[in-house]
Structure formats: C-alpha cells, structure tokens
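Cross-check.
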Amino acid sequence: MAAAAAEEAAPGADAIMDGFAELERQQELLASCTRLYQQLTEHFGSLERGIKSRSDSLRARRRVVELRASRRLDALRRRELSIDASVKLALSRLDALAKSPAPKRDREDGDGPPSPPPPPPSDDVAEGLAALCAAMDPAGFLAFVVERRKEVDALRAELPAALQRCVDPARFAMDAVSEVFPVDRRAVRSPTDLAWACVLILEAVVPALADPDPEIGAARPMVPQAARDRARGMAAEWKEVAERKGGVEGAKPPDAHAFLQHVATFAVAEKEDKELYKRIVLSFSWRRQMPRLALTLGLEDDMEEIIEELITKGQQLDAVNFAYEAGLLEKFSPVPLLKSYLEDSKKIYCTSDNVSTSSGQSGVNANKKEQSALRAVIKCVEDHKLEAEFPLEDLRKRLEDLEMAKTEKKKAASSCSSGGPASKRIKGSTGGAMSPSKSGRLSDNTGAPSSPATATSSSTATAFIGSPASHVSYGTGSPYSYDRSAGHALYCGQSPLPMREPYAYPPAVPVPNVGLGMPYQAPPMTYPIYPGYNSGLGAYGNAMAPAFHQAYYR
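Predicted model, tokenized:
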C-alpha cells in the first residue's frame, strides 16, 4: 500500500516542480520586459528632450532672423525714402567745396598741366592734411602721414575731417594706398612696412564715404561703381598674393588688417569669401578692431562659433571683446572668462619655471609673462567697466610685487657685475709671491700690496723659514717662484710662461734702479723682518716685492 501511494504521489511532486520552474521563467520574462520598458522610456525621453532643445534653438534663431530681417527691411525703406534728401545734402556739400578757396597751382608752361602743390610749410597736422586733401595729392598725402608717424593720435583725430574735403574720397584713398597695398611697389622700401598707414587712412575715410543722412550714415557708403570695382580688383590681388605665399594665416598682421579694412571700407565683401574672413579674424583676433570688422564683414551669424573657438584656444580676453561687440554677454559671461584666463596663465608660468630651473632666464621670462597677463586683464576690466564684478586690488598688488622683484634683481645683477673685476684682483693677490709687474699693479703708492696675504699653507711657511739662503717656494726646489710647474692663484690655475733663464739678482743693492733715471724713496712704513727670511737682498728684506716709483704705473 505504501509503495502504491508513493508511486501515486510522485507525478504530483513533479508537476509542482514544473509549475515553480514555469513561474520563475515568467518572473524573469517580466523582469526583462520591465528593463526593456525602462530603457525604451529613457531613450524616447532623451529623444523628446533633444527634439525640444533643437526646437527651442530653431525658434530662437528664427526670432533672431526675423528681427534682423525686419530691421534690414526698415533700413531699406528708410534708405529708399532718404535718397532724395541724401542727394540734396551731397549737392550742397559739393557747392560748399566749390565755393571754398582752392589752393593756388603754378603752371610750368602756359599750356602745360598744373604742377602738383608743394608740401604744406605749416607744421600743423590739421592744416597740412586739409591742404593735401583739397589739392587731391595722394602721393604727398601718404608721405605726410608717414612723416608724422610719431603723431599718430593727432593724425587719427584730424584725418576724417580732412578727407571730407576731397572731391572723390574713395578714389583719393585708393590712390594714396595703392603704392603699398595690395602689393608694395616701392623701389626703395624705406620705411619697411607701411601697412599701418593704410589701415589709418582706410579707417579715416569711412566717415567721408558715409551717407549724408545721419540716420543711415556708414550703413550706406557712398562709393561710386567704378571705385567699387577697383576696390574688388585690389582685394582679389591681395588674396592671390597671400595664397601664393602660403595662405592668409602666414601674412603679417598689419597686412591682413589692411585687407579686411579695405573690404569693409568700400563695401566689397563677397559671400563666397566669408570663410576667408573668418580665418583671418581668428588668426589675428588680438587686434583691437577685429570684433568690429567681423560684424561689418557679415560674420554676425558666426560670432558664437568664433567666440567658442577663441575660448578653446585659450584666448579668453579676445573672447570677452568679441562677446561685448556682438552683444552675447548673456551666453558668454566676461567674469568667468577672465578668471579662466588667469588660471590658464598661472599654469603656463608654473610649467615654464619647471622646465628650466637651473637658469635664471626662465624665471625672468615667467615674470615678464605674468606681468603682461595681469596688465591685459586689468586693461580689459577697465575698458568694459567691470570693476564692481571683478575687483582689481589683488591684481594690482601682485603686479607691484612682481615689478619690485624685477627691480631688485636688476640692482643685484648690476652690483655683482660692477664688483666682479675688483674681487678677481683681490683673489689674485692673496696667495704666494708674484712677478714684479703683477705686484706693481696691485700695490698702492707706497709699494705695499693692496691686500696682504691672509692664507698660506704650513708647508710653504716651513719652506720659507727653514731655508734662509734660498727662495725655495712650495717645495719645488726652484729658487724662483716664476718657473715652478704649479699655477699661481693669480693665473686662475694656469701656469705662466716659464722663464728660459732665471734672473740673477745682484748680491747686494741698497736701492735698485729700474731705469727711470731717478731713485725712488723707500716705503715710509717699516715691517718686521721675519727671522731666517732675509735672503741678503735689500729690497726683499721684509718679505715684500720691490716697490717701484709711482711713475712706473702710469
């Protein structure tokens, strides 16, 4: 009975085990489905968030584009309505120029063309510029600007008003810079670089080319079509020359700046050249006029990308200037950028100090770099009025400490350099005997050495005292100190030229004569005679080299 009951119960246990296994499989399936659901939920949530952020960005850009388009449409309407008024203003200006007294022109012949006016004799910058512009003398104008390059502030202030006296400012400006831009065509290039003068003239002619309507102004430059075509040709020539020399990035900063200013002044920017303009702006972003030129050349849509690239390259100060010019301070806050610039600069100083600590030059260079960085940050903060958000007391204190340390180093270096030769002479006179010529140069008027011997070896002293009748020195066995093999301290460890034949002193000469035809007086001071040191020579009786007359040293 028991066996039969066990056989009947066995299938029921197997069914229960199979049921539990099925439940476990179902549980694992539910868990995997739950995990898959969570993953899908997160994936679709990220997609929704990405789509939402892109939509918000597109909406923001659309609003910016619509606002910009509406502004440009309004500007076009105003320009269209102001054409008649602008023409009247231009005609009235021409009438005023025509009625103004013209400069006198002498004729070489009765029928010949008028000779160019001589340079203005006045030293006044304003009068000289006005006379040259009224006479339409571009060559003399450029020469005048180059000659007054030390008065660049006065030139920058007076050039716009002077250029407005030109009958055709666009042609006059291009004629003035054509000798050095786009290619320097001078036979003798002296001064070497005149790109700065081109930039100065091209910047100053912008007000003269602006629309007479004050509401429009420089937004509509009054450049004739012929002048604009010529300006395009000059820009194309500059690009060809730059690419032939290795690219615009390798151009000189003043030359690249002059090119961008030329394009902006005469409004000849090309859409296909926007990438070229962007490359130049990024390569020379540290120049003060680059943010304004970037906007003038139509790079306002690329300003965010330009600023981000500047930050990536570690040019946070330039990024701050671009952000201010483009009005992107909300996205690119200046204070964090300035702090980041100081932190990066500090890392560079520490790295430069660790590269070469054995040489003092690395420390000097690091000091200069840190001072330059501090001055740049201070100037940026002052220019943009950020003192309330970025206090400058600590930076100014650090700058003062660096300048004081630099001054102290200079003083120490100058004192060491001035004391070097004297210390060498003293060192040379402190050990052992020396030749009469050396002894004479190191003696005072009395014939005594300027610094008596302070340190002699015990063996040397023994040799001197123990041999009264011979000048044995340093145990060499030679009666003279000149022809020993060991180098004297005066010769920096190098042996002097040996004498072929030792000089034989006379047995007893009371007062030696050196061929001056006059006896010299004995030293006024007497020194104790050491026992056993007198060799029988009167001049060497007190262990001193023979004292010569003062005329010997002249």
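Residues 249 and 283 are 6 Å apart (CA to CA). The longest helix spans residues 2-81. Passed to J.P. for a second look.
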